[in-house]
């Protein structure tokens, strides 16, 4: 019988259920199991190893926040490396910047890209429509290790959680290689998980401890992602030179006239204002 519910364990005790989700495709690749569903509430969505990645209803929040925050700090970015991001949503947002010259995307699992192109054109459509985008199907870890020094102005780590193929993207050696591959004014944005439940908080603290050891500027910003555990999610902003608030180029970014559904200049400022319990957890990260 067809599954008509989707349930995901956010923790051992807390589960998230979508009661109007119909399962329509499943495939196990050498890297992970990919499942696609259709829901009246969330539209088409897919999961990797049973965890929600992207859905049509709230994808704009994640993709706005990973892309526009760094671009509003340095609108002169020319070359970008996206690690993961197989659904294409991050590449779609980056491709809106006409000033970008190169968008490289390294996704370990080609099937995520091909299935997103088939079932999720909302996020995947720019992947074959923009000559600046080059797709590489390899491990992001090895890719940055082999990347030329100072070859990217921005690295966006749009990865899965630190289990399975995404594990290496939360290691110190990966962050060191990102640092090396970034230009002198380079910016790294990475998954920082969530501060709320202990399971994800543990990963948030571990990721932050490693990054703040390496980068002179290592800040964290938050956004509301309703379908990720607790709905409270974080990205890290690390840079060799630019501070996300002191160097925020509000007017320059606004003059581009990009229409966004979640991101705006007020959100940019507010996203870095963290609740006390989050600040304390990050301060103690070591
Ligand atoms: N927005 C999502 C989230 O936070 O749940 C992540 C989206 S996503 C589609 C993440 C992608 O990272 C997956 O397609 C996965 O195959 C890819 N990925 C995981 N580990 C990777 C690695 N080591 N190198 C490159 N891509 C990787």
CATH architecture of the largest domain: 3-Layer(aba) Sandwich
Query: Which overall shape is indicated by the principal axes computed on the Cα atoms?
Result: globular
Distance between the termini: 49 Å
The overall number of domains is 2
Structural class: alpha/beta
Mean pLDDT: 95
Total of helices? 10
Question: Numbering strands along the chain, what is their spatial order in the largest sheet?
Answer: 9-8-7-10-11-13-12
Main beta sheet: 7 strands, mixed
Topology as a string of helices (H) and strands (E): EEEEEEHEHEHHEHEHEHEEHHH
**Record field, number of beta strands:** 13
Which small-molecule species are bound to the chains here? Answer: S-adenosylmethionine
Return the CATH topology of the largest domain: Rossmann fold
CATH class of the largest domain: Alpha Beta
Radius of gyration: 18 Å
Question: Spans with pLDDT under 50 lasting ≥5 residues?
Answer: none
Q: What is the assigned CATH homologous superfamily of the largest domain?
A: Vaccinia Virus protein VP39
Helix amount: 25-40%
Strand content: 25-35%
Explain this structure to me?
Helix 6 (172-181) crosses helix 7 (198-214). The longest helix is centred in the C-terminal third of the chain and has 17 residues, at 198-214. The model has no long low-confidence stretch (mean pLDDT 95). 44% of the residues are buried. This protein folds into two domains: 6-55, Spermidine synthase, tetramerisation domain (Spermidine Synthase, Chain: A, domain 2, Roll), CATH 2.30.140.10; 59-283, Vaccinia Virus protein VP39 (Rossmann fold), CATH 3.40.50.150. The protein is built from ten helices and 13 strands. A seven-stranded mixed β-sheet has the order 9-8-7-10-11-13-12, sandwiched between helices. A four-stranded antiparallel β-sheet has the order 3-4-5-6, with no helix packed on it. Helices cover 31% and strands 29% of the residues. The chain is globular, with a radius of gyration of 18 Å. The chain has 286 residues and is an alpha/beta fold. S-adenosylmethionine binds at residues 31, 48, 53-54, 62, 83-87, 106-109, 112, 139-141, 158-160, 165-166, 168-169, 191.
